[in-house]
Amino acid sequence: MSGEHQVKPRALAHKDYKSSYKPVWCAGCGDYGVLNALTKSLAALEIPTEQVALISGIGCSSRLPAYTRAYGFHGVHGRALPVAAGLAISRPELTVIAVGGDGDGFSIGGNHFIHACRRNANFSYLVMDNAVYGMTKGQASPTTESDWTGSKLAPQGTHQPPFQPLEMALAAGAPFIARAFSNASNELAQIISEAIEFPGFAFVQILSPCVTFRPEQLNWKKQVHEAFSPTADKREAYLKLLDDDGIGTGILYRAPRPCFQPDTAAARSLAAIAADFEVPA
Amino acid sequence: MSGEHQVKPRALAHKDYKSSYKPVWCAGCGDYGVLNALTKSLAALEIPTEQVALISGIGCSSRLPAYTRAYGFHGVHGRALPVAAGLAISRPELTVIAVGGDGDGFSIGGNHFIHACRRNANFSYLVMDNAVYGMTKGQASPTTESDWTGSKLAPQGTHQPPFQPLEMALAAGAPFIARAFSNASNELAQIISEAIEFPGFAFVQILSPCVTFRPEQLNWKKQVHEAFSPTADKREAYLKLLDDDGIGTGILYRAPRPCFQPDTAAARSLAAIAADFEVPA
Amino acid sequence: MTEAKEKPPVDSCSLALIGSGGAGVMTAGQILLDAAAEAGYFGLMTRSTGPQVRGGEAAAVLRLGVTPVGCQDDRIDLLVALDWGKAEHFSDELVLDADTVVIADSAEGEPPVWVTDSGARHYAVRLSELAGEHSGLRANIIAVGIVGSLVGLDFECMKNTIKRRLIGKGNLLADVIQTGLQASISAAESLQCAYKLAPPQPQPRWLLTGNEAVGMGALRGGVRFCAAYPITPSTEIQEWLARRLPEVGGCLVQAEDELASINMCIGASFGGGPAMTATSGPGLSLMVEALGLAVATETPLVVVDVMRGGPSTGIPTKSEQADLAIAVYGAHGDAPRLVLAPNGIGDCVTTTQWAVFLAEALQCPAVVLSDQFLGQSRAAITPPKDREWRAERRIAPADISDFQRFRDSSDGISIMGIPGTPGSEYTATGLSHKPSARPSAISADHRLQLDKQLRKLEQFDYGDDWADIEGDGSLGLLTWGSTTQAAREAVARVRADGSAVRLVSLRLIAPLDRVRLARALEGIDRLLVVEQSHGAQFFRYLRAGCELPSHTRSLAEPGPLLLRPGRIAATLRVLEMEQVK
Amino acid sequence: MTEAKEKPPVDSCSLALIGSGGAGVMTAGQILLDAAAEAGYFGLMTRSTGPQVRGGEAAAVLRLGVTPVGCQDDRIDLLVALDWGKAEHFSDELVLDADTVVIADSAEGEPPVWVTDSGARHYAVRLSELAGEHSGLRANIIAVGIVGSLVGLDFECMKNTIKRRLIGKGNLLADVIQTGLQASISAAESLQCAYKLAPPQPQPRWLLTGNEAVGMGALRGGVRFCAAYPITPSTEIQEWLARRLPEVGGCLVQAEDELASINMCIGASFGGGPAMTATSGPGLSLMVEALGLAVATETPLVVVDVMRGGPSTGIPTKSEQADLAIAVYGAHGDAPRLVLAPNGIGDCVTTTQWAVFLAEALQCPAVVLSDQFLGQSRAAITPPKDREWRAERRIAPADISDFQRFRDSSDGISIMGIPGTPGSEYTATGLSHKPSARPSAISADHRLQLDKQLRKLEQFDYGDDWADIEGDGSLGLLTWGSTTQAAREAVARVRADGSAVRLVSLRLIAPLDRVRLARALEGIDRLLVVEQSHGAQFFRYLRAGCELPSHTRSLAEPGPLLLRPGRIAATLRVLEMEQVK
Ligand SMILES: Cc1ncc(C[n+]2csc(CCOP(=O)(O)OP(=O)(O)O)c2C)c(N)n1
Ligand SMILES: Cc1ncc(C[n+]2csc(CCOP(=O)(O)OP(=O)(O)O)c2C)c(N)n1
Ligand code: SF4
Ligand code: SF4
Ligand SMILES: [Mg+2]
Ligand SMILES: [Mg+2]
């Protein structure tokens, strides 16, 4: 199962990682910033396009893979993480990056999120969080504020407190947890690079404004602030999160632990295995 | 949608809440203790059988509803919580209790678990946690220790740290979080009563030994110890959990917040609603 | 000009307005439809956009008529281009010919090749310039005035609808609308266009989309609980219900996913209240396990699937009828259920209401197959009647004796215990069970419940609503769902040629009413089965379950281009010529 | 006694051992099967238990034979009751008659009514007393000795297998086994029983369950990745693979649910490695969305569904063939896929191997429909050959030029780019797309891919393995999957009456090979379609897709009682008498 193909590093520029497809994104969408930062990071890490696999579900943000020149898999809504896990576990030499939105990752995909944190297979997960379902035209997502009445599906608000991605990741056992802002391209590229290089499941919540359904998020530009420096102490991380305003950035938690490794065994031939069924004569 | 049927309290004894069906459970299974404590609690609270609805998924533990004389819904694997939410939201006068196992609740049902914590509809959730899939004959569940090699499906262990139900519930926003032990019938009944009476989503992890696939859990009897007294301070709750050995009991967290309440509106007739479609002549 | 004006008025005309995102073609289309409705016409507007959430090219396609309009025509009579942007994206959707009149902003230069190649007559009109002369007006409103006057819409109706739609939204003044409209009408006078509509027959009209209509039908049937997860093109059903359910004492819950939404509905229905969810293909795929649970526990439930292009994510914004197979067969094990399909926008009200009624009466899930075309098109229609169907379940009175939830009965329908009622406590289960609901693996118990679950559906008398049957003759057309509209028009054309044709449109897809269907097909020796799927799912479903005339042909086409009347009529005419063995 | 001994030896005999949980009937049954296999017989053992996880009543039902044994017989020749506990639970499964010999522990008193009413000859034997005389032995081993000697199993074979199974598990000594067995054989001497087997024809034998066989087939086909979520009755496939995959350089991942397991397999397969998951009905229901994704992205994938009683949770421990419809039709949109079915325990190896090969060659998902009977029965069989089928995908070499992932070709199969390979980078998508993989909502693009996805399956030459065809004649029997075994025996009985009968058992369910099927049915004027489902799913599926002889009848029964040869043979005989119109 492991790669028969050799890694041939070739120096690529940042733009060489972008495909010729014009994104379907609205002008001003935060996701452009993520695409930029991601390609910057891949260029900086000098990972050849063919060694990268970007895996996504469904949503505006989940369209990202096709805008790169890497391998990509744009699967169904909420299932990016298991696809990425299957790939990362069976092809450990690849750079696997799951990407998607807050609805894809925390609503329909919530179960895979918490189990990916626990399983700790070696891939990164970039969530472009705009606290809304962009693609389906503006419904509340798990990270939406409870008093947001902009959705026709919950015209009086969601009646529930927003999902806390970092806190959930921490409780679920993720070893690398960070938050970044799509517009802060260099910082974001830096955090993405650290996530990619981290051995294990690295989760980055990226505040990525939806200019169309959450235009007020354009204010994030003025509001985001550095808040975290990496700790390996869970207690410390929790305490920081209890004071969190949701728009502080940085690496919150970095505590490497062994990556998920499936069972191993001494090699046997198929004939030897078949012989187990034989009846002694 | 609200109840046309009146509540007629009738004094019932503990055993009146049990049905005549013989459980399929193994002799010595912890789930008998849960059935006992639950019926004790219902008797103590004097809730008539017809006012109670027990909702479950699939697993040994999920068989519990049919062993009571209340209403019950034994649905499919992992989906007890949405069934319970639909019922509790549409019939708020009923006492709705979801019950099930660790596999049902934290593996396949994990997404509903975290969203139920957040949504805070008014029902209780009792998870009979035996850190194993009993019904399917002994595979590791999310709460199984990573070095347990008793499963043929993960003969070298799970390769991942166990799921922390209380920590997850806290991070996800559950307002009532407790742990109890199936054998400690009175304490368990007491905690169940508090969960039932709590206005909102009340989650109780019940350590309930699987004598067949985890016989070592019979030791829990000697090991469980009171560890928690209720706090409404999330920070304090986290700090307690960071020192948790997994078998400390008590109510960890109790911080009531408004239950999930769907949107409301002034009443209109169907004819008036239909008139919205009319074209001005 | 005079030449055109002398042509006789038409009974219907087809318009398309195209432009880049933000040009306002959708607003213009809506105003035209509203004005036509107010003037007493029937009409239909479909929207076509690119994959972008906002922006990107857009087309509003309208058909206005003196009689009910159910589908778009084969070709476009009148095309208005606010700009030529990426108009070629619509080249396969909008068929132009020498009779087409094309009006484009004079600022835009030559039309693209597919337009000029069609031979359509092209007029460059100063749309944006004229708009500039009326402060606050945009070219799309000038287009409304020109098109409206060309097809003969009443001035007051246009003015009223523009006011209703636009005043308050910008700083547009009523005066400006008046003068702008007048200027547009003058601009139209120099154009030769032979598509003036015959006078309308004013009658009460409803203006709504099929998605709104489904919502209305659900309320009429008695639905008071909905849990849903957004998905194109069904979201508007959810949004409409989110607003309306609280007004009738019910509520909508946005669920974390479709597994949750359908199970929430099952929970609410177990609690006694009629419940519904709405979704599209991917959501339906996720719901089939719970559909089987509803079958086994005999829980009433309505699932509306607004079909889009498949497989997988497919084409979310376009129509197809390819979820029939999963609607009928999806779920492991033998899990018979009701499947119904509205065959028009007004019928979305009726069929959904019926589905609620049937699900409740028969204690089983009902899948309603609408589609993107019905769901997202907006139409001016004759108001659909409120039917007698109200959710009514056979439920246990308090303190019933010897209650057995799944006791068999002559019609296969049992009495349901509703939580809160003393005496009918039971535990519903997806396990095979005895009449008492007690789990059982015994063959006789299993079989009894399977028999009952099927029999209650097959023995029920569905009455005359199972299908729409129109006309007579030995040539037949059998179809379902939204395709019915184009089929009806095709049949009318073939009839106009002097051939007798019978149209049968199934509203009740499952169970298949074999007896009534056989009767409806009596005397037909050539049958065309028409549907919008690649795999001929409807045709195969029929073959599986009943006898079709030996000379039966299938016309099955995938989306996203909808089957048009001309295509169907042509196929019918070929079939008519075929030798019957 | 002598009377019995003089009867001619039999070619096969049917045994049942029953007792309460813990009595050891399953162990006894396994030992008898092992010993028979070692002696050179064929054999089959099925297990029947109550709903309890541990404990509860249990029955081991065995059939041993000189020739291959594929199903249980209509009736039981020899019933051994270690106790009468809740034996009546088995009354509909175990058919006794006047020819049945019943042996029960003398400590147990009279047999229950269903046993005595059958007219079976009953012997009370001191099973537990005898066991008590041999320290460490239990009554179940005494039963082994008695049964073994009555049917004529070799003493050494019995001793060996008991040793292999039991020594080391308790403190049983080899001597005790020897003397205990001898005592049992003496006890058997006084019993009149006419079921001594004819001498065996020793040949290499494999002893395995269908679930293990599926695992072996998967490895042979080339599967190296499995992600799965436990579910009865498929878990043993997962467990077998968890142990074996690492030995061949692969691995198994236990997923959080079935949505994850199938998507993990898709991820691994996208990465180039043949991947498989195994589940049962409820899991398959959860997987259909991802099945559609695999169709649309043309990702090879094998999903094994070990069918159990449905709908919903149904009867998890019993067999049924009622997931055929969801296997074929499950997933929204037009999503054609491969569906295959093994028709015997050995064939589980072959068909799974073939499924892996086909999925890889055709770049699409393959559903393999096994069932609880095949999966959990244990059999002594002729070792299934390793076939030539090895996973082989059409993949892009490094630096390929002008790569288009979904380019159409004459056979509809495209070249796949595998991550790690420079030059064939692309993004797979569930959206409708162009040959380049670029998302597209254009009609021609959509249609091209739908055509290709169907055509590659329909044009492929599946060779002779598509079905097993046996015999000739104008009377035909068409069946699939595990039911084939009983059907084959039924056909043999009808042939023994002098009638020619042709048996066709479909291995390739979808796509339906219409041409070969028509050829296989040539000359048949009466056809019986036999299956284990309530809704006649197979029969309807065939009707939908091909022409059947006009005189075709359906024999469709739900589980949990399996169709037995006698029932099928009787139906065949009735059909034979029917007048063909
Ligand atoms: C099973 C399924 N359910 C629902 C949908 C509809 N859907 C598409 S994208 C989306 C939400 C997208 O939100 P998010 O993940 O936050 O992405 P964004 O568009 O905001 O970037 C939904 C509900 C779907 N495609 N599939
Ligand atoms: C969709 C689906 N997948 C898998 C199963 C098989 N299954 C039944 S119970 C169970 C796990 C039970 O574990 P748990 O919830 O911990 O309950 P326990 O038996 O330990 O009380 C599984 C995997 C199923 N019934 N449905
Ligand atoms: S709708 Fe929002 S998230 Fe989607 S592309 Fe537009 S701005 Fe971005
Ligand atoms: S298997 Fe375990 S959980 Fe299931 S009934 Fe037995 S002891 Fe209880
Ligand atoms: Mg979002
Ligand atoms: Mg458990």
The CATH architecture designation of chain A is: 3-Layer(aba) Sandwich
- The portion of residues assigned to helices of chain A is 25-40%
Overall form of chain A: globular
The first-level CATH class of the largest domain in chain C is given as: Alpha Beta
Give the overall silhouette of chain C.
Answer: globular
Number of domains of chain C: 4
The CATH fourth-level homologous superfamily of the largest domain in chain C: Pyruvate-ferredoxin oxidoreductase, PFOR, domain III
Please report the distance between the alpha carbons of the first and last residues of chain A.
Answer: 37 Å
Structural class of chain C: alpha/beta
Give the chain pair forming the largest contact, with residue counts. Answer: C-D, 69 and 69 residues
What do these coordinates show?
The complex is a heterotetramer, with two copies of chain A (281 residues) and two copies of chain C (581 residues). Chain A is α/β, with parallel strands linked by helices. Chain A has one domain: Rossmann fold, CATH 3.40.50. The mean pLDDT of chain A is 95. Chain C has 581 residues and is of the alpha/beta class. Chain C has four domains: 186 residues, Pyruvate-ferredoxin oxidoreductase, PFOR, domain III (Pyruvate-ferredoxin Oxidoreductase, domain 3); 175 residues, Rossmann fold, CATH 3.40.50.970; 63 residues, no CATH class; 114 residues, Rossmann fold (3-Layer(aba) Sandwich), CATH 3.40.50.920. In chain C, the strands form three sheets. Chain C has an eight-stranded mixed beta sheet. In chain C, strands 9-8-10-11-13-12-19 form a seven-stranded mixed beta sheet, with helices on both faces. The interface between C and D is large, with 69 and 69 residues. The site of one iron/sulfur cluster has 11 residues of chain B, from loops.
